[in-house]
Every structure is written in structure tokens, then in C-alpha cells.
Amino acid sequence: MHLVKHQAADTLAEVLDEPILVTLGHERCISILEDIRTDTAQYTLDGFRVWLPSIPTWLRKDAIAALKKGNVKDFIGTVVDFRHSLAVVACNIPFLQHRGLYEAALLRAFISSATNRLRDPLPFQRSLFMLADRQKLRDAGDSLPGAAPYALYRGVAGVGALRRVRGLSWTDSFEKAAEFAMMWNLPDPAVFEAIVSDEEILTYTHSEMKEHEYIVMLSRQTPVRKCEDFFPYIEWYTQPWLGI
Questions:
Q1: Rounded to an integer, what distance in angstroms lies between the CA atom of residue 225 and that of residue 15?
Q2: Pairing of β 213-216 and β 225-226
Q3: Distance between CA atoms of residues 110 and 67, nearest Å
Q4: Are 216 and 196 in contact (CB under 8 A)?
Q5: What is the distance between the alpha carbons of residues 227 and 225, in angstroms, rounded to a whole number?
Q6: Which of 48, 109, 138, 176 sits CB 3.0–4.6 Å from 95 for a disulfide?
Q7: 152: DSSP letter
């Protein structure tokens, strides 16, 4: 655990454990570190330094107050730009684990993003979930609907690292996956299907975002199939009147 006693971190190694740090990538590390270096106010709870990168100065007292109450929803809510939510959780892993809040904060940060989380490398996302207690992560979400196995879908677009066919976020709605694939106007949109076991599902949530979102760590042995019946959705979404 990190018990940081100095005013500001000079390197992210003073804030993040090495297994998390190495998954971030250079550009993301620099961005987070610059936020930390400009944070001149010290916040300490239970002997742990609390780091608040990307949380506006005028909201940091609210963030600390939420942590004192154990309210992770309000804590993550102080991260105005939700693209930074996972980074804020990562910077406070020792404290959140100490308070028993890590799994709930991680899930809240993950589902709060209004984007496809491309800012955070997939190995970084996976490493955060691998640190979670499996039962606590399940308890932080909703009860799974029905019994496994589950036919789940994932909408993707773009090429290379943008595509993330075996990413973490899946849905049981083909239509929702198709909608997401077309949302960002990226090349080569597609929907993929996987038949997923109970063991591969980290958690499930519906009540917060009103979507059936499954957080899934696919086994290497689990095949992923491209849905050919996605093409009618492409034709509809690319009509001139939609402006896409």
C-alpha cells in the first residue's frame, strides 16, 4: 500500500502499483501525472493520501465528503469528465480497498462513461477488474437475469486498437450493440456475438444506466462470431437524412 507523505508525486510510481502502471501507456501516464502535480492541496483519509486528478478544484471537498460517507456514486460524480473516472479510481486503490469501496467505485466509474472508454487501454481496464474481489464486484451490480450461458453482443467500429472486439462491455440486446457500433461514425462497424459462461461474467448492471450491461472477461477459448445480419442496420443508419 502507498502511504504517501510528501506534498506532490514526482512520478506515477509513487501513486500507482506497478502492475497497473505498466498497462497505462506513456501518453496516459503523462496526462494523469500533470494533473497530480498541479494538485497542491493535500487530502488524507485514514492515513492514506487521496489523489484527485481531473476533479475540478471546486468539487474536491465534495469528493472527500462523499468518500467519508462511503458514497461512491457521489464521489465518481465529481469527476466532471467521466473519461477520467477509471484513472481516479486507479490512483486511490489502496484507500478504496481499505474502506471496502473499491469494487463499487470501479463499477460506477466504468459504467458512468458516456464514451467507449478508448482513452483507457484495454489492459489497464482488465488489470483494474482483476484486482477486484469477485463476490464484492457481483454484489455491487444487479442480479443476473436468468441462468448461463448467455448470448451477448458487442458493437465495435474502427481499426486496430480502436476496435476491441474482445472488450469488457457486452449487452444481451443485438439492437443496442448495433446502435453503439454506428454511434461514432467510425469505419467498418460490426456486431459480434459470444456465448458466455457464468464464470466469465464479472458483474451485470441494469438499474443504474437502464441498459443491460454485462462486464465480461472472455476466456481465450470462447469464440466470438461476427453477426452478418448486422448489415440492414448499416443501411438504415447511413441514410442521407440521418446526416451520418
A1: 40
A2: unpaired
A3: 18
A4: yes
A5: 6
A6: 48
A7: E
Q: What angle do CA 165, 119, 206 make, to 5 degrees?
A: 65
Outline where DSSP puts E strands in 88-208: 150-156, 169-171, 190-196, 201-205
Question: Dihedral (C-alpha) 119, 62, 204, 211: value to the nearest 10 degrees?
Answer: -80
**Contact yes or no for 148/197 (Cβ under 8 A):** yes
Nearest to 19 by CA among 130, 110, 109, 113: 130
Residue-level pLDDT, tens digit, the chain, 244 residues: 333 333 356 677 777 776 777 788 777 777 777 777 666 677 899 999 898 888 988 999 999 999 999 999 999 999 988 888 998 999 899 999 999 999 999 999 999 875 667 778 889 899 999 999 999 999 999 999 999 999 999 999 888 877 899 999 999 999 899 988 888 788 889 999 999 999 999 999 996 767 899 999 999 999 999 998 766 555 545 444 344 4
Cell readout for 132 is 477486484
Give the bridge partners for 48, in sequence order.
Answer: 45
Crossing angle of helices 102-112 and 122-130, in 10° steps, is 150
Q: Which residues contact 167 (CB under 8 A, 6 or more apart)?
A: 122, 125, 154, 156
- Looking at residue 125, its amino acid is Q
Among candidate residues 140, 154, 153, the one with its CA nearest the CA of residue 106:
140
Selection from 132, 210, 126, 133 nearest residue 169 by Cα: 126
Burial of 213 by CB count in 10 Å (0-12 exposed, 13-18 middle, 19+ buried)?
A: buried
CA-to-CA dists, residue 42 to 109, 222, 244, angstroms:
23, 46, 47
